[in-house]
Amino acid sequence: MKRFAIAVDGPAGSGKSTVAKAVARKLGIIYVDTGAMYRTVALHCRQKGIAWEQEAEVAAALDSLEMKIVPEEGGQKIFLNDVDVTTEVRSAEIGKGASAVAAYPKVRERMVELQQEMAKVNSVIMDGRDIGTVVLPDAEVKVYLDAGVEERARRRVGELEAKGETADFEEIKKMIIQRDYNDMNREHSPLKKADDAISLDSTSMTVEEVEQAILDIVHERV
Ligand code: DC
Fold first, then answer.
1. Taking the complete model, does pTM exceed 0.85, yes or no?
2. Residue bearing the CA closest to ligand 1, atom 10
């Protein structure tokens, strides 16, 4: 089969990564979690004592950052200067930092380049905020996945609790609203639905239903 790409964009907690991983497994293609890349930039800055708000310093810190993405069956591992940070970048705090550093054009340029390289050699399903609009504008399938904010907060609380972290629903909900606001209102590559993306609302859909909806679109188009 010819190489193809699936772009999945949407706000925090809409279920993008869960569904994208499942689709990758079904189709035997590579899953790329682009959010993890911005999270890794945020972690790198934190380790170097650079505040996320300092755009020039954050951009300069890219020179000492080597990021490696290793696809795995239905997932990926991410390495920061040869250290596996896959789990470490998942915290809510680093998510906040990722949203801050993702606003900087220098950071985005570097990440987009890496993402486009991966899609050049593999069939991929990539999830993020700007995949259908900027990273893979020619993707065969584009999905914009959304869900109500209450449901998204419930899912995040469940994820954090499953990892043994304590999570306050109202606080998580506030963080999600703030993060969506940042991601949708930044100047460069804000989160928005590509004109040719298909919208799916996962609020009252199961993971399997969303997965099947995407597979149906793939089978129609690819
Ligand atoms: O999907 P996530 O929660 O892991 O993403 C973390 C942050 O990274 C998110 O708030 C915005 C940013 N991001 C982005 O700007 N572009 C992407 N393609 C993916 C993530």
1. yes
2. 99
